């Protein structure tokens, strides 16, 4: 496998993460240290699908879009590591996220992700969304990384509870002798 380096365009981003239009929210990755740090950008044109209703006459980029853009930068950072290349990053939580500046059409958002902790399949990532030098949002996201399913329709294994063996369907075994 090759080492992934910045800059990455949309095709390079799509080679690492499964997001696609209209939900691929970053245009380019301008800085990348696999497993350590990534900086991605998106220029808000005013034509984005979510701006039509948020808010008519005064379009403002929704905070959830800023958070997801940060998460996509974090996914690129994690998926650029050789051992995570074929995985899938999923949200596990959002901590102490604050919004500090309105983002509007014409702004270019910079989405920074810095790995704080990565153990087994769990990541804690400090994120910031900036416009110029102004912080628009910042906080911490938590993510779980797992292998991608073998095929688009394949189901993944059910998560196992600690201390219990999986049952015949991959979940917790039924209690024997129990009626009803």
Write the H/E string, N to C. HEEHEEEE
Structural class: mainly beta
Number of separate strands: 6
Q: Which shape, going by the Cα principal axes?
A: globular
Computed CA radius of gyration, to the nearest angstrom? 19 Å
* Content of β-strand: 25-35%
**Which regions have little confidence, pLDDT < 50, spanning 5+ residues?**
154-180
The oligomerization state is single chain
C-alpha termini separation: 53 Å
Q: Count the helices. How many?
A: 2
Structural domains: how many: 1
Largest sheet: 6 strands, antiparallel
The CATH class is identified as: Alpha Beta
Mean residue pLDDT: 86
Describe this structure in words.
With 180 residues, the protein is mainly beta. It has one domain: Hotdog Thioesterase (Thiol Ester Dehydrase, Chain A, Roll), CATH 3.10.129. It is 12% helix and 34% strand. Strands 1-2-4-5-6-3 form a six-stranded antiparallel β-sheet. The longest helix is centred in the middle third of the chain and has 17 residues. The protein is globular and about 45 Å long. The C terminus is likely disordered.
Element layout with pairings:
Blueprint: H1 10-14, E1 28-33, E2 37-43, H2 63-79, E3 87-99, E4 108-119, E5 122-131, E6 134-147
Antiparallel strand pairs: 1-2, 2-4, 3-6, 4-5, 5-6
Quick structural summary:
This protein is mainly beta and 180 residues long. It has helices at residues 10-14, 63-79, and strands spanning 28-33, 37-43, 87-99, 108-119, 122-131, 134-147. It is globular.
């Amino acid at each position: 496998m090759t080492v992934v380096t910045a800059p990455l365009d949309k095709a390079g981003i799509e080679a690492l993460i499964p997001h696609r239009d209209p939900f691929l929210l970053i245009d380019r990755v301008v800085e990348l240290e696999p497993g350590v740090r990534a900086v991605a950008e998106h220029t808000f044109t005013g034509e984005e699908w979510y701006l039509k209703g948020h808010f008519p006459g005064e379009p403002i980029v929704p905070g959830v879009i800023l958070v997801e853009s940060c998460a996509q930068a974090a996914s690129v950072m994690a998926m650029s590591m050789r051992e995570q290349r074929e995985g899938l990053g999923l949200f596990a939580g959002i901590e102490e996220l604050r919004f500090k500046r309105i983002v509007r059409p014409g702004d270019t958002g910079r989405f920074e992700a810095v790995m704080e902790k990565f153990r087994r399949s769990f990541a804690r990532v400090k994120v910031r969304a900036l416009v110029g030098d102004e912080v628009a949002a910042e906080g911490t996201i938590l993510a779980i990384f797992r292998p991608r399913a073998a095929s688009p329709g394949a189901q993944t294994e059910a998560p196992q509870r600690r201390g219990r063996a999986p049952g015949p369907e991959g979940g917790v075994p039924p209690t024997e002798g129990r009626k009803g």
